[in-house]
Design goal:
mainly alpha
Length: about 80
Amino acid sequence: MKEKLERRLESLKAEYEAGKKMLADLEAKEDSLRETLLRISGAIQVLEEMLGNIEKNDRYNEPEPLEPTEEGEPEEVWGKTNA
């Protein structure tokens, strides 16, 4: 009976240690995943800000449409003619 209990105790201790190792591995993976998500989140924020700046600048820097001249050639808004 004693031997049976000792074997069971050793089995449970081994299972406990294996569980602790699995938990530590999962926690390390969780930390790594959190870092990855943080980097991705930062990249998303930067790209959204860049796109917002581009859209804002495009609104202010859009050239006026070309208008036809008497010769039928388009003339740029800035007064330059296409030659």
